Amino acid sequence: MENLFRLADHESFFSRRCIWVNGPAIIGAGPSGLATAACLREQGVPFVVLERAECIASLWQKRTYDRLKLHIPKQFCQLPKLPFPEDFPEYPTKKQFIDYLESYAKHFEINPQFNECVQSARYDETSGLWRVKTVSTSAASTRTEVEYICRWLVVATGENAECVMPDIEGLAEFGGDVTHVGEYKSGEKFKGKKVLVVGCGNSGMEVSLDLCNHNASPSLVCRSSVHVLPREVLGKSTFELAVLMMKWLPLWLVDKLLLILAWLVLGNIEKYGLKRPAVGPMEYKNTMGKTPVLDIGALEKVRSRDIKVVPGIKRFLPGQVELVNGEKLDIDSVVLATGYRSNVPSWLQVRKCEFFSKNGFPKAPFPNGWKGKSGLYAVGFARRGLSGASSDAMRIAQDIGQVWKMETKQKKRTTACHRRCISQF
């Protein structure tokens, strides 16, 4: 596969315009795409992975802050068929996780086509095939368009493909530094500054903690309700406890027990401006898709007022922010911890799509949101983290593998086979 594409680099635009993929095309080389590719490799199914960046796991490598660690134990974050190294800590660092993903790709001989940005993907009902158009995003080369033709399309771009930039009155006139959390690396450059952190999820909380550790003065905007849970209870992961309880107890009881544990460990957090939702943390995640905050030290800074929790924003003024309660704060910088969203609607062209909703997520809830019609699959959209993505990846590979083996009647076929189409579409 590598030799074919290396040769194609020296050929003309028209000669490599259309490429037949003898197997599924996987869009995205993040953990979800890698997991799917590895499971397909085990099934003996050839594939191609298309990635818009120049590296695997670009979200982790390019859009995460330096102090980031996995918030849940490593056994719930490892991808199929290859566990984390035994010497890794229970909560691996960002660097350790990236190293793991790199070794994972190497182990399963996953070689994505980098700098291939998908412009569109549509199902051709006449041929019964998917047509995926890409544009080369490599700065070193001229703009090159390629169309990949495949029978199966696996969407692995995930929940966090694009930054969410809120439209807040006056933000353009604020005049200070405005950074999305995807561009935030550390609080070093904010030392001694008053920083407004917009968003009180896991990223907003951890960025606020990092700012405190770098002698900045953060104010954390908590516009809506939020569940905060201790990361551990008596040395046991709260996430692991929840998983165990969910196997035996109804959802409402698990939520009640989690809230009791949170109150015993963290106390009453509402007096600090962190109002809890009316429903429990697990139900809230299932219905709203919002993950509970696992506290790793930020709450202590909230109690000491080193992190000031403030209500929603009314508008920005030059050098200031006006809150919904009328209070005005002098601030130097803004960090937008407003999250990410799926970008699937911008490129997947399916008439009356019964699989994906307008927000770019599968319509069917977990565990049924992995398979659509006409060879369309989705992985990493279940709002179940890396463990949910791994489950989807295994289901997808098994589903495609059954068809592949039945039709080819081959026990093993470990290398992808691509050929340029004679006809031009």
TrEMBL record:
Top-level division of the source organism's lineage: Eukaryota
EC number: 1.-.-.-
Record key words, sorted: Auxin biosynthesis, FAD, Flavoprotein, Monooxygenase, NADP, Oxidoreductase
Gene Ontology biological process terms in this record: auxin biosynthetic process
SUPFAM superfamilies associated with the record: FAD/NAD(P)-binding domain
Recorded GO MF terms: flavin adenine dinucleotide binding; indole-3-pyruvate monooxygenase activity; N,N-dimethylaniline monooxygenase activity; NADP binding
NADP among keywords: yes
Pathway stated in the Swiss-Prot or TrEMBL entry: Plant hormone metabolism; auxin biosynthesis
One Pfam family, short name: FMO-like
Enzyme class, UniProt record, top EC level: oxidoreductase
Cofactor(s) recorded in Swiss-Prot or TrEMBL: FAD
Catalytic activity: indole-3-pyruvate + NADPH + O2 + H(+) = (indol-3-yl)acetate + CO2 + NADP(+) + H2O
Homology family: Belongs to the FMO family.
Name of this protein: Flavin-containing monooxygenase
Organism (species): Juglans regia
Phylogenetic lineage: Eukaryota, Viridiplantae, Streptophyta, Embryophyta, Tracheophyta
